[in-house]
Design brief:
Elements lengths: L1 H21 L4 H18 L14 H5 L5 H18 L4 H9 L5 H16 L4 H19 L4 H15 L7 H11 L11 H17 L1 H5 L16 E7 L23 E8 L12 E4 L13 E7 H10 L29 E7 L10 H4 L1 H5 L2 E6 L19 E6 L1 H8 L4 E10 L6 H17 L4 H14 L5 H7 L2 H19 L2 H12 L5 H15 L5 H18 L4 H12 L10 H7 L6 H26 L3
Antiparallel strand pairs: 1-4, 2-3, 2-4, 5-7, 5-8, 6-7
Helix pairs in contact: 1-2, 2-19, 4-7, 4-9, 4-16, 4-17, 4-18, 5-6, 6-7, 6-8, 7-8, 7-24, 8-10, 8-24, 9-22, 9-23, 10-25, 16-17, 19-22, 20-22, 21-22, 21-23, 21-25, 22-23
């Protein structure tokens, strides 16, 4: 009967592989179907405990993967990574490193990619790539090179950097979790030497060969998604205690308003300003010489959305205030010019025939109707230097609006303003960036030194970033990737079934028979290239979990040490270079880089072959095979 269960397990796994590769159903759906099929197999048709495999698989063992320490660690690290992303904690260090490149395009790309690779060794590579995409896009525009030259290489070096340490990628943690059941515990830096050899070899290919394979492309026009030249007109009310109070102009510019053009300043002649300018206001136009900002000033500016977001998150810009009589007492804490958690910026277009057309922003009462505040205005025709809120709306105007998620939902239902769905993004809480970095460094030190188990360090760190205000519980819950959760849990269930029914041992013995008389090096090399090929069709996490017990079985059959075989699966499962769907960072750069499917094959397949050769030459010799 156990032979039946072994072959039935193979059938379930094969069907799940087809389901993942076909992409007709969601990953979560295929994973749930796989788990349900395994549960049905082992509960409706019980195993005989007297067969070749004496261990009986029960339901508790099949669902135990969802509480696997490696999976818990992955999810906790995703929360910490989201906190770093939510606070823009990595942006300033990355920009500082980019300045080291000077005026040389090659040196600039080299420094950026090297920084991303090193960072990916200590942080999940997905948030690292997310953080670097806008930086590369902005620098590409400044230096005059196409971002295609750097974005796909960015994804690749993120994957390569993640190979070097235990927490560099979720794949590493999962392989370590499966191998621990066989008595092989992988430490934080246990495979850093072969990892550096692999990553270094791949990095040289990415820097010197990939640009030639990608070729030269025309720069994107200003209307592309990467263009950052579209400016919004906005205004900043300088109130008592505002960061800009007392700031003096330097060479006509205000240092705190980086990347922002000041168009005019309205200063009340008598007393504090009340809700905007009046006929008695003094209008100050550029150039601004010997001018110091003071409470009551209203600054009319022109800036890109990115510059306005930065100013908001750093406190240089503030949220517009309502008059006292217009405030809702229940929302008063959100109306006092302070950024709250989950504060979101989005763009909305004034619809043709909208009843808002011809009204000023104040008269349109957008804030009172939808809860969202208007922070900027952009239109094709010129906008006056007067108060932004005094401009009359026209059909086709684009408004930069801000509010909480509930406010955005109300705006989404409006027929007067058309919310641009993909434009919504939360404002980073830069004030919390030092806290997020501090917590992240402590987690890394605790895990690297072994003072605290990595699962404990990551969970404590996840709680700490929430308690420190780096992200809300809702944001933390969103950072949990349900696809990873279901995929890994179902894959661990399949690995358990394959191992306990004797399937892993059967595959191992079959492989040994096929390569009978061959050295352990040849068997290890063949296992690497097979796993590397499958990881570009399946999920890298699923490939890692399914093939780790097979590799352990092969090593045991050959009387070889376990570590090189487990490390081989770890490296091979990370070789997700040949397709855009092989890894999430490949998908992240697909649109911004304007890549084609063939670009991934052209650049990824040679990289896999090079890493295979590097692995075959170095790793067996390093481990004494």
């Amino acid at each position: 009967m156990n032979d039946f269960h072994m072959w039935a397990t193979f059938v379930v796994i094969a069907m799940s592989i087809v389901g993942y590769a076909w992409e007709k159903w969601s990953i979560e759906g295929v994973a749930l179907a796989t788990l349900a099929a395994l549960l049905a197999l082992f509960t409706l048709i019980p195993q005989s405990p007297t067969g070749p495999a004496a261990t009986v698989v029960d339901a508790n063992e099949l669902i135990a993967g969802f509480a696997n320490p490696a999976l818990v660690t992955v999810l906790a690290l995703l929360v910490i990574g989201q906190a770093l992303f939510n606070t823009d904690a990595l942006e300033k260090p990355a920009e500082l490193m980019a300045k080291l490149g000077g005026r040389s395009v090659f040196r600039t790309i080299l420094v950026l990619l090297f920084t991303a690779a090193v960072t990916s060794a200590f942080l999940n590579n997905t948030p690292v790539v997310v953080m670097f995409i806008p930086i590369i896009a902005a620098i590409a525009k400044q230096r005059g090179f196409h971002p295609t030259k750097a974005l796909l290489p960015l994804s690749y070096v993120g994957i390569l950097g993640g190979m070097t340490t235990l927490i560099g990628s979720s794949t590493n943690l999962l392989v370590a979790g499966v191998s621990a059941r066989s008595g092989l515990e992988l430490g934080f830096f246990d495979f850093i030497v072969p990892g550096l050899v692999m990553a270094g070899t791949g990095f040289l290919y990415v820097i010197f060969v990939m640009p030639w394979l990608l070729g030269n492309r025309d720069m994107p026009d200003e209307s592309s998604a990467l263009a950052s030249g579209r400016h919004f007109v906005a205004q900043i009310d300088v109130t008592e205690g505002h960061r800009l109070v007392g700031e003096a102009a330097v060479a006509g510019l205000f240092p705190s308003l980086q990347g922002i053009t000041v168009r005019s300043i309205y200063r009340p002649k008598k007393g504090p300003m009340q809700d905007g300018g009046t006929s008695g206001d003094q209008v100050i136009l550029p150039p601004f010489e010997d001018l110091t900002l003071q409470p009551g000033d209203t600054i009319v500016v022109a800036a890109t959305r990115r510059a306005l977001t930065r100013a908001l998150s750093e406190g240089a810009a503030s949220l517009p205030q309502l008059a006292v009589e217009e405030r809702d007492p229940e929302r008063a804490s959100d109306e006092l010019g302070r950024l709250s958690e989950s504060f979101t910026l989005a763009e909305a277009v004034v619809a043709p025939g909208s009843r808002l057309s011809g009204r000023t922003i104040d008269a349109a009462r957008i804030r009172q109707t939808y809860g969202t505040m208007v922070l900027g205005l952009q239109r094709r025709s010129s906008v006056s230097r007067g108060m932004m809120r005094d401009n009359r709306l026209e059909p086709g105007d684009t408004l930069l609006v801000g509010g909480l998620p509930d406010d955005m939902e109300r705006l989404r239902e409006s027929r007067q303003l058309l919310l641009l769905e993909r434009s919504a993004a939360e404002v980073p809480l830069r004030a919390c960036a030092p806290r997020a970095i501090f917590i992240f460094v402590i987690v890394i030190l605790l895990a690297a030194t072994g003072v605290v188990p990595i699962v404990a360090a990551s969970l404590i760190g996840a709680y700490a970033v929430i308690a420190a205000g780096c992200l809300s519980l809702r944001q933390a819950a969103r950072s949990f990737d349900k696809q990873i959760f279901m995929l890994v849990g179902a894959s661990l269930a399949a690995a358990t079934a394959m191992e306990q029914t004797g399937g892993a041992g059967y595959l191992a013995m079959t492989t040994v028979d096929v390569f009978a008389g061959s050295s352990a090096t040849i068997v290890l090399s063949a296992l690497f290239i097979v796993t590397a090929g499958l990881t570009n069709v399946l999920s890298n996490n699923a490939t890692a979990v399914l093939f780790t017990p097979i590799a352990i079985g092969i090593a045991q059959a050959l009387n070889a040490p376990l570590e090189p075989f487990v490390i081989g699966i770890l490296f091979a499962a990370n070789c997700s270079f040949a397709t855009p769907v092989a890894y999430q960072t490949n998908l992240l750069v697909l649109g911004p880089g304007r890549y084609r499917f063939v670009d991934y094959m052209r650049c990824g397949i040679p990289l896999i072959i090079i890493l295979w050769i590097a692995f075959t030459v170095f790793v067996p010799a390093y481990y004494g095979l």
